[in-house]
Design goal:
The protein has nine helices and eight strands. With about 220 residues, it is α/β, with parallel strands linked by helices. It binds adenosine-5'-triphosphate and magnesium ion (MG).
């Protein structure tokens, strides 16, 4: 099992945090020391960054905030724009150093990416550069809705084009009205060259430990 996974998704708001937390619980249930990391969080609500709080709560070990979340940006905007408005330059090597520190405290680090895979981080870097610098297997969260096939296949292509490996994918039922969900999942099973770790239905009860039982981390490639 590797020292960490980079969690990306077909878009923003499609369940990366939910799946990252569920993965943390799944690894914890296997007796592993785990920690979540959100390298760049944009959008502060009442002094809190929700993703960071959720990842911290699902981790079994703790670490200083500046390691778990090196960049906490206040505006709820694309990261490079939020950073520019805050006079901050996002530097992936700062994130890499924080990851190296987190590796000392946990056996597995679950890193939630920001937005979709190619989201710009600065004038110079994007999400794919960050994933490459961290050099971890990527887990793709597919938010099941119309259009997700194209988004999932494009993301998988970008992951591979950056020399990274897809360790697995998760089908996340964000749209309870979606038609032909099974057929969409079947299509991606055939076309994504990595194991399906689990199917999460649309859930009203956000019990992350229960949701984690839907993921089979033994399938992780
Ligand atoms: N399977 C699901 N059933 C019901 N609601 C869900 C499901 N998955 C995600 N959601 C809800 O959708 C919203 C977005 O999910 P989440 O925050 O995990 O997305 P994200 O990809 O991490 O977003 P961001 O790009 O902002 O980090 C949340 O309110 C979450 O509770
Ligand atoms: Mg999130």
């Amino acid at each position: 099992m590797t020292e960490g996974y980079f969690i990306t998704g077909t878009d923003t708001g499609i369940g990366k945090t939910l799946v990252s937390c569920a993965l943390l619980h799944a690894f914890a249930a296997n007796g592993r020391k785990v920690i979540g990391m959100k390298p760049v969080a944009a959008g502060c609500e009442n002094g809190h960054w929700m993703d960071v709080d959720l990842l911290v709560a699902a981790s079994t070990v703790s670490a200083p905030c500046k390691l778990v979340n090196p960049y906490a940006l206040i505006p709820p905007l694309a990261p490079h724009i939020a950073a520019k408005q805050s006079n901050i330059e996002i530097d992936p090597t700062v994130i890499q150093k924080a990851f190296f520190e987190l590796k000392k405290t946990a056996e597995t680090v679950i890193i939630e990416g920001v937005g979709g895979f190619l989201v710009p981080l600065s004038g110079q870097y994007d999400g794919a550069d960050l994933a490459r610098i961290l050099n971890l297997p990527v887990i793709l969260v597919v938010g099941l809705r119309l259009g997700c096939l194209n988004h999932a296949l494009l993301t998988a292509q970008a992951v591979k084009a950056n020399g990274l490996r897809l360790g697995g994918w998760v089908a996340n039922g964000i749209d309870p009205q979606m038609l032909a969900q099974k057929e969409n999942i079947q299509t991606l099973k055939q076309r994504l060259d990595c194991p399906l770790l689990g199917i999460i239905p649309f859930v009203k009860d956000m019990n992350l430990k229960n949701i984690s039982k839907l993921l089979d981390i033994r399938e992780l490639a």
